[in-house]
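Researcher: Structure for this, please.
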Amino acid sequence: MGPLSRPIFRSGQWSQTTLEPSVSTKKKILIQLDCDEHASVFDGVVAVDAGVDHLFQYSRVRPAAVRGLIHGAMFTRGPADLQSTAVFVGGSDVSIGHEIAAAARSVLFDPFRVSIMFDSNGCNSTAAAAVLSAAKHVDLSSGKSLVLAATGAVGQAVCTLVTSLGGEVIVGSRNVSRAEETIKRLGHLNVPTSGLKPLGIEDESSLKMALGEAIAVFSCGAAGVELLNGDLLNAGVNLKAAIDLNAVPPAGLFGIGVMDQGELRGNRFDYGALGVGGLKMKIHKRAVQQLFTSNNHFIDAHEMMKIGRSILAA
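Model: Predicted structure, C-alpha cell format:
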C-alpha cells in the first residue's frame, strides 16, 4: 500500500502532505456527551472497565454545542490516529440523544472521522440483549411480539430490532393514542412501520387478545410497576418467551424473578432484568472497545445486535 494523502490547513487553505500508513499508538480517548446535569457515572465506569485511557465527560450537552466539541475531536490528531478518539452519546433523554448523535455525524468528513456510539439511557444495549435473549428460544420473525411500555427508550429500541428481524410488533402503551404517536416517531427514524400495530393496554379485552396472539412479550416499563398480573400473563397461551426489564419490585410481569435467565415455566422461557443484564453489560463493553478498531464506526441498536450475536457465538 502506498502513502496516504493527508490534508493540512495552512494560511487559509487546504494543502496536501504525505502520511505513511501506520497503526495508531495514541492513548484511547472517549468523549462522553451527556444531556443531563451530571454525566452518567455508570457509563463512565463501563468506559474505564472497557479499557479507555482517558474519559472526557461533558454534561448538559445540546445539539447546538456539538459542532465545536466534535471539531475538537477531529482536528487535534492526524487522520491515522483518529481511531484512538471516539464519541459516546448518552444521557437520560433519548430524543435529545438522537439529535446529538445526528449532529455529531453531520460534522464529520473524510478523512477526519471519529467513531460514535449512541446508547442514551442504555436503550440500545439493553434492547439488543433483550431481543437476543428471546431469540434463543423463539423465531421472532415467525409471529407477533408484544412490547409493553413501548413509548419509552428501551421499548422503542426493542420494536426497532424485532421489526428488523422481520417480525410483527404490537406496540403497547396505556392508551392507544400514545402507541400511535410512537409508531409515527419510529417512522421518522426510518423504521418500517407496516408491521407495527398500536395497542392501548387499558382496554383489557384488547390486551388479552394481543397476548393470545403473541409469541414473545417484552416488559419495558418504569421501575416497580406491574404491567401484567398473573391472569393476564397466563392469557398468553402461545408465548414462548417473556422478558421483564424491571429490576425493582414488584415485577413488571407477575411471577418472573429478577435473576431469571431462561427459566422454563410451562412452554415459556422467562428472563428478568438481571438475567438480561449480564449480556447487556458484555455488549456495552464490547461496543466501547469496537469504537477504537477504526475511525468510522457508528454503533447503534443494530450494530449492538451484531456485537451481541458474536458474543453468544463465542
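Researcher: Any notable elements?
Model: The two ends are 33 Å apart (CA to CA). The chain is about 40% helix and 25% strand.
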